[in-house]
Amino acid sequence: MKCIRCRTELKGKRVFLEGYVPTPHPSFNHMKTGDDLFLCCSYECLMGPRTMIVAAACRIVDGHVNLIFVSARHFDPLMHNQIDNSILTEDQKSDGPWEQGFIDQWGNYWSRKEAWKMAEKNNQIRRRCGGDTVGGGTLYSENLY
């Protein structure tokens, strides 16, 4: 038997989710509340893929320029190398306006506060560091490793 959503082999697993009919996935259009659901129980299958924070990012939005630079840490040597070899003017390189944040696995940019909420929800916070509780949560690279 296979999961009706992702087609993973179930190996005898059976899941009954009372009152839960996932929609709008077409596999579930024929189901009604109380039906047995044969799902693989993975988070991604039940809830869709999680958005995970994967790298530090610095963004500059200045006129027609909208660039994101990505590295392990904000303004580390690798990021400085990317910035130095970019199309930015010398003023933009030194003065910005720079925003520090993070990207997810799809390359979307998130502010430090938005990234904190996402990382906390997905249990990505590995350790606490000074300042990470400011304003309801502010993510730092050090929180992730």
Computed over alpha carbons, the radius of gyration is 21 Å
Distance between the termini: 39 Å
The ordered string of helix (H) and strand (E) elements is HEEHHEEH
The structure class reads: alpha+beta
Count of runs of 4 or more consecutive helical residues: 4
Integer count of domains: 2
Major sheet attributes: 4 strands, antiparallel
Q: Strand fraction band?
A: 15-25%
Unreliably modeled segments: 15-28
| Average of pLDDT | 79
Structural account:
There is one protein chain. The chain is an alpha+beta fold. The chain folds into two domains: 1-47, no CATH class; 53-144, no CATH class. 20% of the residues lie in helices and 19% in strands. It is built from four helices and four strands. The chain has helices at 43-47, 77-84, 90-95, 112-121, and strands at residues 53-62, 65-71, 98-104, 109-111. The protein has a four-stranded antiparallel β-sheet. A hairpin with a 2-residue loop joins strand 1 and strand 2. The radius of gyration is 21 Å and the shape is globular. Mean pLDDT is 79; it is low at 15-28.
